[in-house]
């Protein structure tokens, strides 16, 4: 479900957090369901347990996950809506800004870019 | 609880192998001991475990002087290039032997790990291939159950599957009951994600000792056209520069300055351990 790219520019703990967020957003991890343990994450991705913990703690800090003492980490109720809202807030910086910069670099006219976005929007809607 | 060295110095003839080495290996942490060939990694590990004597300096293990102290040394296992087993000994015998030196040695675990790696316990140690000789030593290291396990070039000759299996078994063991692990290697990329702290040595001296994350957060890379990069790096602490045609990547200490006049033509990225290591230990 989750991929860790050692050669990525992104720190591993952020990749872990984003991978878990993706799984919550897609419904692969249910609200109220248990998250993979630190040990499972550490062994699966051959990363230091402290790194895995740092990743999970990013979810806890946002209120998307919580710890049950002696049991493990769980997805919080309302985590999906919370993460959707956060990702919507990041959307422009994460996706639109690099797209606009690349379009500029390639000399694509503004209107053409807008048309492409509209076209992709429609085809995504049709599934 | 820790292994500590103070001002270790060791000279072999004209070669200054270690010079004023003071390090701390805390309990329950995974360390990367990183250095180029001949930097002094093995000398340091051999001094910690009493196989070599330092010319000057001190080593303590959990507060006790480590020199000729069996009780202190019983807490430390060193897997090194040289093994101390008689040539004709079989793997299974070596496991029994290990138990007499390390009371915590778990034979059942050693046999089960041998099975996982496909190591024949009937084989004579002298007859093992380079890869299986490494595996034999790793099986010992993962079964001794000492609070400190030092691994000198642990993955020498191991294929990708066996390396992966070793890392997973190591992390499972560490998760079940944390202990101090030192991975001494020049293969930085392999261990970068595993280690919590990093010790970098060069020419017998410690260049850096700190957590991997804090080390990496002290630097960044900046890439772009030669003119833009050259303008940006003026007056900054540059560790090194890679050039590819008209493109440059500079490795810089400090924090990115995105308000610099040339910043919009540049791409900023995080430092990676392998690149930082190369820049620090070059020349």
Describe this structure in words.
The complex is a heterodimer of chains A (127) and B (283). Chain A is mostly helical. Chain A has two domains: 12-79, Winged helix-like DNA-binding domain superfamily/Winged helix DNA-binding domain (Arc Repressor Mutant, subunit A, Orthogonal Bundle), CATH 1.10.10; 92-126. Helices cover 64% and strands 6% of the residues of chain A. Chain A contains five helices and two strands. Chain A has helices spanning 12-26, 38-44, 49-62, 79-106, 110-126, and strands at residues 65-68, 72-75. Chain A is elongated, with a radius of gyration of 18 Å. The two termini of chain A are 22 Å apart. The model of chain A has no long low-confidence stretch (mean pLDDT 92). Chain B has two domains: 2-214, 3-Layer(aba) Sandwich (Rossmann fold); 218-281, Alpha-Beta Plaits (2-Layer Sandwich), CATH 3.30.70. The longest helix of chain B has 17 residues, at 160-176. In chain B, the strands form three sheets. A six-stranded mixed β-sheet of chain B has the order 7-8-9-4-10-11, with helices on both faces. In chain B, strands 1, 2, 3, 5 and 6 form a five-stranded antiparallel β-sheet that branches. Chain B is 32% helix and 31% strand. The two termini of chain B are 36 Å apart. At the A-B interface, helix 2 and helix 3 of A face helix 6 of B.
Short summary:
The complex is a heterodimer of chains A (127) and B (283). Chain A has helices spanning 12-26, 38-44, 49-62, 79-106, 110-126, and strands at 65-68, 72-75.
> What would the principal axes of the Cα set say about the shape of chain B?
globular
Contiguous helical run count of chain A? 5
Distance between the termini of chain A: 22 Å
CATH class wording of the largest domain in chain A: Mainly Alpha
Work out the number of β strands of chain A.
2
What is the global morphology of chain A? Answer: elongated
Rg of chain A, please? 18 Å
- In the CATH hierarchy, the architecture of the largest domain in chain B is 3-Layer(aba) Sandwich
SS content category of chain A: mainly alpha
- Helix-strand topology string of chain A: HHHEEHH
Got a strand count of chain B?
A: 15
**Strand composition percent of chain A:** 5-15%
Reported for the largest beta sheet of chain A, the result is: 2 strands, antiparallel
What's the rounded overall pLDDT mean of chain A?
Answer: 92
């Amino acid at each position: 479900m989750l991929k860790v790219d050692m050669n990525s520019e992104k720190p591993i703990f952020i990749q872990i957090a984003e991978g878990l967020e993706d799984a919550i957003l897609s419904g692969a991890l249910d609200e109220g369901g248990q998250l993979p343990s630190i040990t499972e994450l550490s062994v699966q991705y051959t990363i230091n347990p402290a790194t895995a913990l740092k990743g999970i703690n990013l979810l806890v800090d946002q209120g998307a996950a919580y710890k049950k003492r002696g049991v493990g980490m769980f997805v919080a109720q309302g985590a999906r809506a919370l993460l959707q809202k956060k990702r919507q807030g990041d959307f422009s910086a994460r996706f639109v800004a690099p797209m606009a910069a690349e379009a500029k670099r390639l000399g694509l006219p503004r209107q053409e870019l807008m048309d492409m976005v509209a076209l992709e929007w429609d085809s995504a809607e049709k599934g | 609880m820790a292994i500590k060295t103070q001002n270790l110095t060791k000279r072999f003839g004209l070669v200054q192998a270690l010079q004023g080495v003071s390090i701390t290996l805390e309990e329950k942490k995974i360390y990367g001991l990183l250095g180029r060939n001949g930097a002094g990694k093995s000398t340091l590990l051999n001094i910690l475990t009493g196989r070599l004597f330092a010319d000057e300096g001190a080593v303590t293990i959990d507060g006790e002087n480590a020199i000729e102290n069996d009780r202190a040394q019983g807490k430390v296992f060193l897997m090194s290039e040289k093994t101390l087993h008689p040539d004709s000994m079989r793997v299974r015998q070596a496991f029994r032997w290990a138990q007499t030196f390390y009371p915590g040695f778990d034979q059942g675990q050693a046999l089960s790990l041998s099975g996982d790696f496909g190591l024949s316990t009937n084989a004579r140690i002298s007859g093992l291939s380079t890869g299986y000789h490494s595996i034999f030593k790793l099986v010992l290291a993962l079964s001794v159950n000492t609070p400190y396990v030092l691994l000198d070039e642990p993955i020498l000759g191991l294929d990708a599957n066996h390396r992966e299996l070793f890392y997973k078994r190591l992390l499972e063991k560490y998760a079940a009951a944390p202990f101090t692990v030192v991975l001494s290697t020049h293969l930085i990329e392999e261990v970068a994600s595993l280690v919590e702290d990093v010790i970098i040595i060069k020419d017998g001296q410690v260049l850096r000792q700190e957590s991997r994350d804090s080390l990496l957060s002290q630097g960044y890379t900046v890439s772009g056209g030669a003119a833009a990069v050259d303008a940006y790096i003026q007056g900054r602490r540059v560790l090194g520069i890679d050039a590819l045609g008209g493109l440059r990547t500079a490795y810089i200490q400090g924090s990115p300055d995105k308000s610099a006049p040339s910043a919009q033509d540049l791409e900023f990225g995080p430092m990676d351990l392998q690149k930082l290591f190369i820049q620090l230990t070059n020349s």
